[in-house]
């Protein structure tokens, strides 16, 4: 399906978030807003989080440029085993806690806490990101697991899209040919949100002519959870005459992170909620644009459990030049794999999960 290109829908969302002022270019206004949010985050974390009170003791928190972050220590997945040490809100203000097994040396589970406000910001991002694929009067079917979980991704998508007239339903996460046939017959969705292994099952089932006709109602697909195999994306677009876009995120980003626009040329990020660095995993120095390094995450405007310079292990690059869609904002490349420690040194490798290159060996995004 050929779709005309226009600037990412996230641009308008970010423009409104940092105060629309056509006299000042969006990148300039956004950078000023991000730096101010970064300063607030550092001051708040140091004041309210027991862990960051210790970790940031003696550090200069007067950040003037993004480069000043380099003087602050990293946070690792192994540090997150006791979320209470990171909390910046009363326990009663925690709306949701997610527990994930780490792949680090201690294998202690990490626990991430979110407030109602944190989840609402993600719902707002979902509304902006999904607007290019699903519209008023249409139906979105979510195949990801955990559909019954309050404030899970399916619930957040429902909260985000129902006000705009989109009907959000849950399909069967097993995603076999039989369950897909049943779900498509029952719901007749115009859009899907699914993980790559579920999309591979959809592509395989679409080789049958009758199934392909049944699935022809689907015109937009958002992939999320693992690294999307381009052969699956291209195969579905051809078989179903639809648009398949990819999403980047993890639990630590409060699920939502970045989405592709119709140009499919990197991820447009929720820049007012996430401050990303891409660093050499050995030296800790920034890598040049276009070169692969480790994604280091600092959350902005996070209420319950801010993270500062969190080592994700994910490998990616900043893409050079403007996006073909016309957006002036920078873009994150598709993930190249994951850095793991072998004999004490970080090594880039692609971790397979269920036949696909997974973001993480321990859990999917959702």
Describe this structure in words.
With 366 residues, the chain is an alpha/beta fold. The chain has 9 helices and 16 strands. A 7-stranded mixed β-sheet has the order 4-3-5-6-7-8-9, sandwiched between helices. Helix 4 crosses helix 5 (153-161) and helix 7 packs across helix 9 (230-240). The protein is globular and about 65 Å long. Mean pLDDT is 91; it is low at 352-366.
Q: What is the element string, with H for helices and E for strands?
A: HHHEEHEHEHEHHEHEEEEEEEEEE
Number of helices, counting only DSSP H or I runs of 4 residues or more:
9
Taking all Cα atoms into account, the compactness measure Rg is: 20 Å
Contiguous uncertain segments of 5+ residues: 352-366
Q: Total number of β-strand segments?
A: 16
Largest sheet: 7 strands, mixed
List key phrases describing it.
16 strands; 27% helix; globular; disordered C terminus; five-stranded antiparallel sheet; 366 residues; alpha/beta; seven-stranded mixed sheet; 21% strand
How are the SSEs placed, and which strands pair?
Blueprint: H1 9-17, H2 26-48, H3 50-55, E1 94-100, E2 110-115, H4 116-130, E3 139-142, H5 153-161, E4 167-170, H6 177-187, E5 191-194, H7 196-205, H8 209-214, E6 220-223, H9 230-240, E7 243-248, E8 258-260, E9 267-269, E10 274-279, E11 293-299, E12 310-316, E13 337-342, E14 345-349, E15 351-353, E16 356-358
Parallel strand pairs: 3-4, 3-5, 5-6, 6-7
Antiparallel strand pairs: 1-2, 7-8, 8-9, 10-11, 11-12, 12-13, 13-14, 15-16
Helix pairs in contact: 4-5, 7-9
